[in-house]
Amino acid sequence: MTDQMPRDTIFALSSGALPSGIAVVRLSGPATRTVIRKMAGTLPPPRQAQLRDIKSGEGNQLDRGLVLFFPGPASFTGEDCGELHLHGGRAVVTAVLEALGAFPGLRMAEAGEFTRRAFLNGKIDLPGAEALSDLIAAETEAQRRFALANTTEAHRKLYDKWRQQLIRARALIEAELDFADESDVPGSVADTVWPEVAALRDVITAHAATYRDAEIIRDGFQVVIIGAPNAGKSTLLNALARREVAIVTDEPGTTRDVLEVALDIGGMKVVLADTAGIREAEGRVEAIGIERSLERARKADLVLLLEDMAAPHPVEIPGGAQAIRIGTKSDLVPPGSRPQDYDCVISAHTGEGLDRLLGLLREASEGFSSCIGNVLPFRARHVALLNEAAAELGFALERENDGLELRAENLRRAGQALAQILGEIDVEHLLDEIFSTFCVGK
Ligand SMILES: Nc1nc2c(ncn2[C@@H]2O[C@H](COP(=O)(O)OP(=O)(O)OP(=O)(O)O)[C@@H](O)[C@H]2O)c(=O)[nH]1
Ligand SMILES: [K+]
Ligand SMILES: [Mg+2]
Predict the structure, then answer these.
(1) Which residue of 35, 173, 175, 232 has the lowest C-beta tally within 10 Å?
(2) Atom of ligand 1 minimally distant from the CA of 248
(3) Ligand 1 atom 4: the closest Cα is on which residue?
(4) Which Gene Ontology MF annotations are present (predicted)?
(5) Given the DSSP bridges, would you call strands 268-274 and 259-265 parallel, antiparallel or unpaired?
(6) Which residue minimizes the CA distance to atom 32 of ligand 1?
(7) How close is the Cα of 219 to the center of ligand 1, in Å?
(8) Per-residue pLDDT, 386
């Protein structure tokens, strides 16, 4: 799978910010045994925590804590691994990291390097590594469940099934090519292979399209607040965020740039964006701000269209996005004299209607968490390769007048694209990018 196996022994603080109750320092690589023997007296039995004095290479006691040894290949990275569970003080951890760095062949791990080694040693595939990175980044319940589901090799099972279908199709084509010299062999390939290839192309295309659901779960359901100036957009953002994120004044045209907050609504990440009020702009800066509002609204999963019921100025919803019409400042307008029917009536000052609005946001977003059990592509990288695979199958289907060899080559390339998603081929150039987004110690 890779050119060379890493030989350095790496170490890092794998637990969080110091000071903490316990700090876990992790090691991986060939010198792990020697180092643990030296620091903990003897090697503990595999996978059993033992309480030891932890010493530097020169024999100075640094701490007392649990020591574990995981012999390769049955370890996270596939190499010999070790863990030192220390008291989580800054000086303790600094002393232990310094002592480790003093051993020959040992160095601090780079971001994601443990997981990278696990990948290079065949312990996990690339979607599995990407899912681990998502799991560590997860902030909401839906993100956590989705990331965890993606660590289960479900993608490998699905893509391997498709690759098997492609291999079978190519075998049938090979067989037909072998018989091509013999005059009266019926054209079995055309009858069986191409309808199957067409069906597979459609399945892959549909699968690629589900990336939208994955994006919403991972990156958040995108909600954009729009409306005329002074409709109360920034006030609503602040009320839902429960902090003063946006500037509020009674001056129309206060907000110029798009401002975002991430909310956790029923376990779903919801990104709420406040925008510049929409009107005939009075200056260049405002005009740019308004253009940004409209652009954001066009890309939104949901638009909150706010109207000040005390001073209504109708605003068009751009681009047919799904919208909730909200009448604001209900404290100023008695129910009988409201200008029209709204989906929701609120007052950010009294709090009226905010719970109902949160309920509507929850309703609009929670449906996406039901996709979590499904296998979805969850990186732009996956989608690009799926589209490439589908395109190759499309070429094979179109080239009816070309030789079977050429069409079989398209099928082979489609299979290669699927293999690339799993990280089996031609991914060296991606690894730095993928693993650098991890934290050090993972
Ligand atoms: N009475 C009352 N006043 C409100 C309410 N919400 C906002 N306001 C007031 O309306 C004015 C405008 O509020 P903003 O939140 O700045 O309105 P905006 O839509 O963000 O305005 P721009 O950024 O200029 O487009 C401020 O004086 C707010 O205090 C409300 O529910 N009731
Ligand atoms: K304002
Ligand atoms: Mg504003």
Answers:
(1) 175
(2) 16
(3) 329
(4) GTP binding; GTPase activity; metal ion binding
(5) antiparallel
(6) 329
(7) 29
(8) 98
> Residues, the chain, total?
442
Decide: residue 258, CB within 10 A, 0-12 exposed, 13-18 middle, 19+ buried.
middle
- For residue 129, the surrounding DSSP H or E stretch is helix 126-137
pLDDT tens by residue, 310-350:
999 989 888 778 999 999 999 999 988 888 889 999 999 99
To the question of whether residue 350 is assigned a binding role by annotation, the answer is no
Distance CA 411, CA 397 (A): 10
* CATH label, 217-370, candidates 3.40.50.10350, 3.40.50.300, 3.40.50.1000, 3.40.50.720: 3.40.50.300
Ion ligand 3 residues within 5 Å by Cβ? 233-234, 254-255
Check if CATH label 3.30.1360.120 holds for domain 2-125: yes
Helix (H) or strand (E) holding 37: helix 32-40
Q: What is the pLDDT of residues 132-154, one digit of tens each?
A: 999 999 999 999 999 999 999 99
Amino acid at 24: V
Retrieve residue 148's tokens.
């965890």
Pocket lining for ligand 1, CB < 6 angstroms: 227, 229-235, 248-250, 252-255, 276-277, 328-329, 331-332, 347-349
Fold exhibited by the domain 154-210+376-423:
Four Helix Bundle (Hemerythrin (Met), subunit A) (1.20.120)
Q: Check whether 94 is labelled as a binding-site residue.
A: no
232 marked as binding residue: yes
| 3-state SS class at 173 | helix
CA distance from start to end of the chain: 21
DSSP code at position 111: B
Residue 113 Cα to chain centre, angstroms: 19
Q: Which ligand is nearest to the CA of 345?
A: 1
How many A from CA of 229 to the centre of ligand 3? 7
pLDDT score, position 310:
95
Amino acid code (one letter) for 235: T
Residue 431: predicted pLDDT: 85
SS3 388: helix
Looking at residue 3, what is its pLDDT?
A: 42
Closest CA to 57 of 91, 80, 34: 34
Mutate-to-test residue for ligand 1 from 233, 235, 240, 352, highest number of ligand atoms within 8 A of CB: 235
